[in-house]
Amino acid sequence: MRFRTRLAIAAAPLALTACTGIGGYGGFGDYYALVRAREVKVGDGSMAVTPPREWNRQRRTFFDDIRWVEDWTLNGPLLDDMTFISGLPHGEYLIHTNKHDAEQVPRFDSDMTAPEIQAMLESAYRVRGGAVDFKTISLTPRPFMGYPGFQLDYEHLDGDELWRKGRAVGAVIGGRLYLVMLDAARSHYFPDEIRDFEAITASARLRS
Amino acid sequence: MCIRCEISRRALLAGGGALAASLVSGPAAARIKPADMVPLIGPGFKPVDRDEQGLWEQMDRVEEEIAGTNLLIPDNGIQHYVQQLIGKVGGPAAKDMRIYLLRIPEFNAMMFPSGFAVVFSGLLLRMRDEAQLAGVIAHESGHFLRRHMIRQWRDMRRKSDLLSIGSMVAGLGGAGAGIYLGDYVQLAQLGTILSLFRYNRELEAEADAMGLRLIAEAGYAPMAMSDTWAQLIGELDASAKYRRKHRDRGYDLFETHPAAESRMTDLRVSAAEMTVPGRHYDTGRDRYLSTIAPIRQMLLDDQVKLNDPGASQYVIETLAQDGWNGLLRFYEGEVWRLRNRDSEGDWTRAAQSYAIAVAYPDAPAEAWRWHGVALMKEGRQSEARAALSRYLSMQPHAVDAAYIRQMIG
Questions:
Q1: Residue B313 included in any domain
Q2: Domain span at residue B99?
Q3: Which residue among B183, B196, B260, B369 is least packed, with the fewest CB closer than 10 Å?
Q4: Is B76 helix (H, G, I), strand (E, B) or coil?
Q5: Is the ipTM of this complex over 0.90?
Q6: Half-sphere exposure of A68 toward its Cβ, with a 13 Å CA cutoff?
Q7: How close B30 gets to chain A, by Cα (Å)?
Q8: Per the CB < 8 Å rule, is B310 touching A133?
Q9: Same structural domain for residues B346 and B263?
Q10: Distance CA B325, CA B320 (A)
Q11: Collapsed DSSP state (helix, strand, coil) of residue A41
């Protein structure tokens, strides 16, 4: 979940600093790492997926260090973003949250139903993604990794006046949230990448 | 220029800059009497001086962006309504001024130097009646009628090295990046643009006094303006309290100069001065509420989903001073559900609000859905199924109908 308008642009230079200091990485090129078209572990490693083509994994940054959340992109986070959540536990947040911020991203609870997860994602887009309008297109039952889950389709108008479209497929398994989400510019990018999303979702499996 | 410039920490941080800060510092001015305020321009005003012409040219580009933004609230009668209001309280420039309603859930409005105003949807949510909205528009008109932008610009240029309007724009906005003004509009970062229009306290006081005079002459209760100001202060305090912070913490200017409170006090004194004992003042409450009715749920939704529980609860309780209803009770529940603090029993509070909301005839369908979810969590399955079924009967084509049907089983 790359929260673009407010976060992504601000994040880039800081992320570089953090990488240089902590991991020894340097240069802009190290901000992304290539993801090959074969099975890869995502998030904290408890979920694996197989992309049909190469993607770019965004490195976790100093203040965007939720270990269960990982972001990929094809054309840069302003145009598209694939998010993986690999077992977010009860009481945790999708993104790093400062409790003193006026507007708070809601917390995940292990007993959340799909409508509550939808509401949590919607508020995250409004609070941190700069969405001024968020429309849920549909919320339907859909199994994920063999467990009862849901599919959420949505669109949002962001502060940069671009309409983006998204699909999330997820399930709460053993009280933890597992989810794959594609969020991309409604024109061209979303239709272009939804096949990747479906292939990745179909390939997702839990790692023991 | 904008009603909350002096106390909006967000706008300050966005604008940054010592120059912006210097504009509002200095000793508090004495109260300006509404009776002393006369418009400095007449109908059809056009600038003749080169610097002001340059400023208007810049503003024309901004207006073009705003007029074409897809953040504009679609015209469903509300646009016409606010345009009529500006006709009532716009003084001699009533027919010259334009107004744009943008869907941005913040408590703000602003007048641009060339005579167009922008009102954020968050302001519409918070107004309890037409008099309050008229007061805000009159204050903004006051800036235009008193030619504040050009007066402040000339004053600032005397004191600084800035050579042109363009350099001011580049210097104050976008952290000195020199970004074309339209970019701010595209980013909906209108808070940033406010840094250009942060008037010194004397000019704000003039706009307050001018505005007060305009609404009084239009037959609205003069006290409406200070009520709005009190709401703004109350909301910021409530939001900060939830975060265990002071509203002004981290910004010394306000700790040494309690501008917000003193402006409110001045407004109250002036309003008392302008109020004619025994006269009946129109609040236009019914007219206002029926006009915004088609978008009121959207306005509440946009606010509450920001999950700023202090501010949202304050807004809801303020609106409920005119009577609770199903819509307000439902959103009260939404505030607690989204805050989700176990130690405060938020889910229980949310469940209670939903249960009360559905007892009102105007409860939105969503109140039945969340009432059902809450009952399900409490293990009251049959009642939950009944509530969810009620939701589906009210909205058979709801976007989540398929999922809710599965929950009903």
A1: no
A2: 9-274
A3: B183
A4: coil
A5: no
A6: 18
A7: 34
A8: no
A9: no
A10: 8
A11: strand
The CA distance from A126 to A134, in Å, is: 8
Q: Does any CB of chain B come closer than 8 Å to the CB of residue A134?
A: yes
Residue B43: inside a domain, yes or no?
yes
In the three-class reduction of DSSP (H, G, I as helix; E, B as strand; rest coil), residue A86 is classed as strand
Give every CB contact of residue A76 below 8 A, 6+ residues apart in sequence.
none
The pLDDT value given to residue B198: 63
Find chain B residues with C-beta within 8 A of A134's C-beta: 305
Domains and CATH numbers, chain A: 4-206 (3.40.1000.10)
Q: Which residues pair with A171 in a beta bridge?
A: A178
- For tokens 């991991």, the residue is A23
Average pLDDT over chain A, rounded to an integer = 86
Query: Is the separation of the CB atoms in A196 and A53 below 8 Å?
Result: yes
Picking from A132, A144, A152, A158 by the largest number of B CB atoms within 10 A of its own CB, the best residue to mutate is: A132
pTM: 0.85
Q: Are residues B267 and B333 in the same domain?
A: no
**Best residue in B187, B193, B303, B336 for a mutation probing chain A (most A CBs within 10 Å):** B187
Res B99: pLDDT: 94
CA–CA separation, B317 and B311 (whole Å): 10
Reading the block at residue A167, the tokens are: 């699909």
Residue B287 domain-assigned (yes or no): no
When CB atoms are compared, the residue of B103, B239, B404 closest to A133 is B103
- Output phi, psi for A57, to 5 deg: -90, 130
Q: Which two tokens stand for residue B291?
A: 């006009």
- As given in the structure block, the two tokens for residue A165 are 């479209």
Report the distance separating Cα A68 and Cα B331, nearest Å.
Answer: 31
State whether residue A56 sits within 8 Å of chain B by CB: no
Q: Kindly give the interhelix angle for B130-145 and B224-242, rounded to the nearest 10 degrees.
A: 100
Q: Which of B105, B302, B340 sits opposite A107 (nearest CB)?
A: B340
Q: Which of A71, A103, A115 is nearest to B354 (CA)?
A: A115
- CB-based burial label for B334 (10 Å; 0-12, 13-18, 19+): buried
> What DSSP character marks residue B89?
H
Report the alpha-carbon distance of residue B242 to residue A46 in Å, rounded: 36
pLDDT band of residue A64 (cuts 50, 70, 90) is low
Distance (Å, whole) CA A40 – CA A55 = 11
